[in-house]
Amino acid sequence: MKQSPSSKRGRSFRSAESLIRLAEGLVTSGSRAEDVYWNKKLEAEIKKVILEKDEISLNVALDKLSEKESRAHEELADAIEGCVEFERIIVGEKTFDSLLITAPILAWSTMGLANFNVSPEQLEEISSLLKKHVFNQNAQISLVNYLYSPDQLPESFIETRQLKKAITHSLLKEHHLLLDEGEIKETATFLADQRHLLGVVAVAKGEHIFRWQDNFAQPEEIEASWKKVSQEILSKIMPQCARDAVLPRAYYVACRDADRQLRKFSINASVSYLSSSSSVTGESLLVVIGGCYDRQLEEYRISFCDKRTFEVYHGIVWPLLGPEDEFSELNEIIEQYLKSCGVSEVKFLTQRLPLEYCEDCGSPLYPNIEGEMVHTEQPESDDFQHQHIH
Ligand SMILES: [Zn+2]
Questions:
Q1: Strand 285-293 with 345-348, pairing
Q2: Which of 90, 188, 211, 261 makes the best surface tag, with the fewest CB within 10 Å?
């Protein structure tokens, strides 16, 4: 029988209520025994909702818990992400633990970042490097032949789950997932941005997935070796780019790592870009930083200005992440990053700035030294290509 939209909405409401109740139960738990009970129930409910492709219930439950500023919000978000990226699968007589992962890469290029495809041979090479340096050496790995930009990544939990299923399907056939370029949506070209090499890693049930789970190896050491060993192959896949590989991890946590690391990377990229394509160096720069507000602080906008003329040559957005807010003392962190890139003059604006964009091209406006929101203007007579930095 065809269901009316209202009956579907009623069911969604009940599922959302049930998710909220279970997540709140988990927060009140006082023992490991209760944790196990609540986690099992919560996971079963989430799996049911995902199977029904009911994205609305997941989001309604998360929104309501977020409005209440409840700790249960974090528990529910963790549980949903876990159910989307991790699955125990049974194939014949074998049982595998399978995890959606990403190997993020931060990159910038004076030409702006293009689309990057990865050949099957390159996927094979990366997969061997991953097994040797990051994952269980007996893991099976299937990767996707395309480096996703942040806005090409699946938008919803259900879409992420579907992509994970498609990659797992390839893994079970011992293939990589080869997409046609037409299957990926268009992306805006930025000077500096993230790219994601997605994949699924499978190990025998209960085995360690990552090297750092075995022998107590430190993730930091593994990240350092990954940066080194991935250099050569990444320079073939992404020529003419400056790159920094981020530690490959479970999908959601690795995306958060990449978001966080991109903020510093973009500052480095901006200073290098200005000094390579114009005569503006760290010493001749004045950097102005202002907080842009909607109802609350949404982001910082960082303007790179000429110290003599105060013209704004270039700007970047520093987004707030996770629980950060106006009390997070990000000013000091941003200033420290700028200083490490050779910028000595930094001015913080104390006024609350509006979140304004250019009406013609849609790019963000950046504060000048007076706190007025202005369009970036390229330096005259320099070989300067106007680029947006993410
Ligand atoms: Zn414009």
A1: parallel
A2: 90
Cα of 150 from ligand 1 centre, angstroms: 22
- For ligand 1, the distance from its centroid to the CA atom of residue 165, given in whole angstroms, is 41
Residue pair 157/55 in contact by the 8 Å Cβ criterion = yes
Residue 219 and residue 134 share a domain: yes
Distance 289 CA to ligand 1 centre (A): 20
| Cα 357 to middle of ligand 1, angstroms | 8
Both 144 and 59 in one domain: the answer is no
Mean of the pLDDT values across residues 61-76?
A: 93
Q: How far is the CA of 364 from the centre of ligand 1 (A)?
A: 8
> C-alpha angle 112/117/118, rounded to 5°?
130
Domain residues for the domain of 227 are 92-258
Ligand 1 ion local residues (Cβ < 5 A):
358, 360-361
Comparing 93-97, 215-219, 245-249, the range with the smallest average pLDDT is 215-219
Cβ neighbours of 157 (radius 10 Å): 22
Instruction: Retrieve residue 334's tokens.
Output: 């941003």
The answer on 367 and 313 residing in a single domain is: yes
Mean of pLDDT values over 361-389: 77
pLDDT at 4: 52
Q: Give the DSSP H or E segment for 269.
A: helix 251-277
Cβ 96 vs Cβ 204: under 8 Å: yes
CA of 365 from ligand 1 middle (Å) equals 8
Q: Flag whether 110 is in a domain.
A: yes
Strands (DSSP E) contained in 109-254 are 116-117, 140-148, 192-204, 242-245, 249-250
Task: Supply φ then ψ for residue 42, to 5 degrees.
Answer: -65, -45
Looking at the structure of the chain, the number of domains it has is 3
Which position has the token pair 């503006």?
Answer: 280
pLDDT tens column, 233-242? 999 999 989 9
Distance from the alpha carbon of residue 299 to the mean position of ligand 1, in angstroms = 19
The alpha carbon of 359 and the centre of ligand 1 are apart by a number of angstroms equal to 7
If you measure from the C-alpha of residue 385 to the centroid of ligand 1, how many angstroms do you get, rounded to a whole number? 14
Ligand 1 centroid – CA 266 distance (Å): 20
